[in-house]
């Protein structure tokens, strides 16, 4: 169900009381769409910003553009051209559910 994007049962119950079902579905649909822009801070002790940018471009392909942040030198900005298509790779990063949802 789309409402499963709201993990905390108390939050879900509060929203169900205060919002119409249609409004709640609209909000949960929005929460499940990846953002247009994602930022990534590069650990410059491990790699250069340029090297990280090249690797990201290789992995993400043409569906995303990778650029350096204008003000923050160690931050890359990833912007999606097609928000609905995701490419799956055999490697993965493991994070807890809250972190993963925060990234979305």
Task: State the helix count.
Answer: 4
Determine the strand fraction and express it as a percent band. 15-25%
Q: Kindly provide the radius of gyration, computed on alpha-carbon positions and rounded to a whole number of angstroms.
A: 17 Å
Beta strands, count: 3
Largest sheet: 3 strands, antiparallel
Order of helices and strands: HHEHEEH
Helix content: 25-40%
**What do the pLDDT scores average to?**
81
Shape: elongated
Give the strand order of the largest sheet, numbering strands 1, 2, ... along the chain: 1-3-2
- Poorly predicted parts: none
Task: Describe this structure as you would to a colleague.
With 104 residues, this protein is an alpha+beta fold. Helices cover 38% and strands 15% of the residues. It has 4 helices and 3 strands, in the order H-H-E-H-E-E-H. The protein has helices spanning 9-18, 21-31, 49-60, 97-103; strands spanning 37-41, 64-68, 75-80. Strands 1-3-2 form a 3-stranded antiparallel sheet, covered by helices on one side. The protein is elongated. The two termini are 17 Å apart. The mean pLDDT is 81.
């Amino acid at each position: 169900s789309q409402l499963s994007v709201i993990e905390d049962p108390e939050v879900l119950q509060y929203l169900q009381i205060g919002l119409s079902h249609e409004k709640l579905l609209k909000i949960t649909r929005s929460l499940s769409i990846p953002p247009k822009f994602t930022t990534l801070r590069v650990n410059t002790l491990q790699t250069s910003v340029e090297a990280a940018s090249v690797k990201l471009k290789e992995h993400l392909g043409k569906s995303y553009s990778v650029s350096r942040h204008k003000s923050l030198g160690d931050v890359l900005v990833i912007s999606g051209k097609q928000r609905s298509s995701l490419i799956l790779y055999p490697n993965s990063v493991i994070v807890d559910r809250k972190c993963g949802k925060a990234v979305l």
